[in-house]
Amino acid sequence: MNYEHIKTGLLIGLVGLSMILTWQLWTFQPNIELLDDTARYVPNEAMSEERKLTEIIRPEQIVIHQQGRHTMIPTNDERFDQLYQKLLKTNFVEGDMLAVGPFPKQVQNGGIELIFPTSIPVDIFLSLFQVDQEEFNLPLSTINRLYMYVDAQDEQVHMQMLSSKDTQVVEVETNFSVGDFERNFLRPFNEYVEVFQANNRSSTRELSEHIYIPLGPVTAERLSFTASPIPGTFFRQALFSDPDSVKHYRQSGSVESFTDGNRMINIRNNGLFMEYRNPIFSGTHERSSKHVVQSSYEFINGHGGWTDKYILSDWNSNDLRDEAEYRLQVNDLPVLSFQGQDHMVLQTSRSGNQTETYFRPLFDLDNQPIDAREEVKLPSGEDVLNRLKQLEFFHIERLQKVAVGYEMIMPNPSFVTVEPHWFFLYDNSWRKVTFDSNEGGGSNGLE
């Protein structure tokens, strides 16, 4: 009897369990997107947040001038960012809009020169300071250097703005605190890195664009990071107007492609880099009213593309195409080589109003490096310049920049090392300085 009761109880339990499971099955809502590998995408929150223009446009050097000597605030010195942030909060008063130079102005107590990686369109420059261009009209098209000093007559901080493109300089009065300027930035002159002027690249003797190089040896850190992949399928959602119509292909040579018949994304180097193409077939293109720097910034901001620290490094514009480039910064130094190639940039080009190409890395670095750090002592700036003068092809008139930057090595897809080296920009191409006379530059412009 008891045996029959046990069987009846088990049967009732199984029937109850069956009803519960049936109810869960009926009410279950599957995530269809995640069941289809070809439709999988990474939502926007997996990418970076939007960034302000002031985070993307920054000086690459801040040089202090004092009685014929020059020092430079290191980019990782907190005073570098402090000065720039204080400057961005400064108001301008129209001054000498027809100034003829010299630049930088020679004053007894010295001044501070800010050098940007590339020229800044004047409307974007004024927007950094939240100045209305209609109310404050500068007779310049671009600005690439600033010089701040205390004027002896009115005891105010004045600022010169130099435009290489226009071969012109204007001068304005600012409300930057004189005491702050002198006490916190001018007086620590001897605490900074001593530099020398490599040459004068100006087209006129009065408007000088010197290349400043550290006089003595330079110490920088070799760092390692873990790297996280950015799935290329994210850009299927971000860059195609109808993601459902996009086809997925695998080509030879480990190239993966997405296309809707017109636009195409090619993912190369085993998923490390992406190239987007949106061909424009019309013979005539209406030029955009927005500058390419503004439109490229909005384009990358629109899909959260600032996955690491990138800053505006170059742009150009002509009748056929407008281009802009943003370079990766690690530890406040530019990454100028990825295993021998200049790939660590976000590059966009535009034809008319439409983004035509977009190139970028498909990985980002963790916020903090792995504990293993190593200081690397590099040769002095004088040794670097002497080495360059020994190169057969070298003409100092074509030298554009000399800088300490990083070469990135990726032994596997989840681990990278950045190693500091001297680099020089020559004929618009970055090259690594080597001290072995038997080594020559490669076709890609990097040794």
Could you give the distance between the termini? 91 Å
Which range best describes the helical content: under 10%, 10-25%, 25-40%, 40-55%, 55-70% or over 70%? 10-25%
> What Rg is obtained from the alpha carbons, in whole angstroms?
28 Å
User: Helix tally?
Assistant: 9
- Classify the secondary structure makeup into a structural class: alpha+beta
User: Which outline best applies?
Assistant: globular
List the uncertain runs: 25-46, 438-446
Q: How much strand content do the residues show?
A: 35-45%
Oligomeric description of these chains: single chain
Biggest sheet descriptor = 15 strands, mixed
**Mean residue pLDDT:** 86
Extended strand count: 24
Structural features:
TATA-Binding Protein; alpha+beta; 15-stranded mixed β-sheet; disordered C terminus; membrane; 447 residues; Regulatory protein YycH of two-component signal transduction system YycFG; nine-stranded antiparallel β-sheet
Short structural description:
Residues 4-440 form the Regulatory protein YycH domain. This protein is an alpha+beta fold.
